[in-house]
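## retry 2 of 3
previous attempt timed out at serialization; input unchanged, resubmitting
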Amino acid sequence: MPGAKTGEIKVQVEDDHTLVVSGERRRAEDKEAKYQRMERRMGKFMRRFPLPEDANLEAITACFEEGVLTVRVEKKPPPEPKKAKTIEVKVGGSSEG
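## retry succeeded, writing output
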């Protein structure tokens, strides 16, 4: 995201497991520069990325450094397997009663 500043970028998670990156790139005011052609687009932008069901929505982090936005999405830990119930086996076949 070259040309963008930290305050111009917003990272959000929507309820339906969608990561939304949005913001606005503004043209630097340089009165002496005469552009023939600009390589970067200016203005508002938005991108949506679907997240997997096992994404931990509470542990998403974003870092913006030197024009690179890094978003880390951790997985939820796998569910623990259910423990088998142990039934005691009694010796002797007659029931009391």
